[in-house]
Amino acid sequence: MNDIRFTIDGKECLGKPGQTIVEAAKANGVYIPVLCHFEGLKPVGSCRICTVRVGGRFMAACTQPLIEGMAVENTAPDLEDMRKSLIEMLFVEGNHLCPSCEKSGNCELQALAYRYQLMAPRFPYLWPRRDIDASAPLLMLDGNRCIQCLRCVRACRAKDGRKVFAAVDRSHRVKIEVDKKLAAHLSEDQARRAMDICPVGAILRKETGFAVPIGRRKFDRAPIGSDVEKGTGR
Amino acid sequence: MSKPVIATASLAGCFGCHMSLLDIDERILGLIDLVEFNKSPIDDIKTFTKPVDVGLIEGGCCNSENVEVLRSFRKNCKVLVSVGECAIMGGLPAMRNGIPIRECLEEAYLNSPTVDPEDRLIPNDEDLPIILDKVYPCHEVVKIDHFLPGCPPSADLIWEAVTALVEGRPLQLTYDLIKFD
Hints:
heterodimer, A: alpha+beta, B: Rossmann fold, two-stranded antiparallel sheet
């Protein structure tokens, strides 16, 4: 099939049929921030951090397939400010105490806040009361940090295909819970993957915290997305 | 010409940010040449004696005294800076924010296993500042002009910000200086 021609902020790009805007942008060395999206998982477009504008309409770049001749706006100041406000909302809706979080330095939410130079949110903090579930032998779930991206729900399955995590309740009360029976039999690899798939510190592998020293963590030196912009991203 | 004046305060903080300010190594000699300190725990001046150019606030507001000090800083400082995570988002003291204040006080003064059974009493002296329902970030109480994140903010970040503010140049906060931990 023929390549699809499209532009991002005026830059001529080529993509393949079936690719989403995020995937095609990445292949062309353009970073579109994502949070709920994870390569290899079916995108759900729940966080809207990847919102771009095409023909005056806002759309989630992680779910929108490429269309011939698309003119994608990615870095317009109003778009970037909207993304920043989404990050701020995620910070005030949970209890994100970076200094005491094991994921600090490797956290994608924090990394986006660094990239967007988030100094203090424009919204008041809500301080919800959330639960911690440390009943699973290898994992700890901290609802304070959960951003309900559903990456764990989509990615983590037992051998027979059953989901290890699930969203319960609705609206602002939605929370992620772990199937205690399945969690009791998770392998070391599965537990590690659950922690890695979580963009924040809501799912932690027990007993291995703070393994990487400050200065060598994922986002200590370079902003999130700089690997894509340099063309070295996967 | 008189030197720019700096004031500092530690509200609901741990003094770690003040320690980080002192951690600027030999640059501290340059700082003394550059600025004059007014109200601050560093020189132990208790009340404002002149208008201040830059006020540095460590810690958030957990009681009525914190709010009073913060408001007096806003009144007396041309530029007010939130220094560190506690000032910016409440930090460690704000871990009590989801818990009703009565529950916190009962846990600390009545039910904790280390409380002397003869001495179960929630402090309620009129000389004590009144504890707030939650710990508030400074910018939810007064207008804050700049934010220096970190726990504590690095000495380099504080140095860059303070020198930029007293010299009247824009802050150059590079990626490696902005960290939330």
